[in-house]
Amino acid sequence: MQITINVPDYVPAYIVHDYVSTIEKQIDLIAETIKPRNLMSQTIKKKRVSFEEILSLAQECTKLPILDSRSADEILGYDESELGLFGAEYGH
């Protein structure tokens, strides 16, 4: 990126140099804070996961303790009513 700064002739070159250096450092800091997010999202989009990696993750998940023994329908709130989801709870 190129930036143009109009500086009067009477301003000493060392002041201009210091000012430009300060701006460059600020831009670098901003770029560094933005860069990891972009790289991370690009890495996630481009990463291909093998079947073996998915299987390995699934096996790890089966080893986790069961914290709630209710069925999926019970957790979601389905019941025996005609309407299913939250039917009896709301008087339908």
Write the layout of secondary structure elements.
Layout (H helix, E strand, L loop, with lengths): L12 H34 L4 H12 L9 H5 L16
Question: What does this protein structure show overall?
Answer:
The protein is mainly α. 55% of the residues lie in helices and 0% in strands. It is built from 3 helices and no strands. The protein has helices at residues 13-46, 51-62, 72-76. The longest helix is centred in the first third of the chain and has 34 residues, at 13-46. The mean pLDDT is 76.
Short description:
With 92 residues, this protein is mainly α.
Mean pLDDT across the residues is 76
Instruction: List low-confidence stretches.
Output: none
**Helix/sheet category:** mainly alpha
Query: Span between N and C termini?
Result: 64 Å
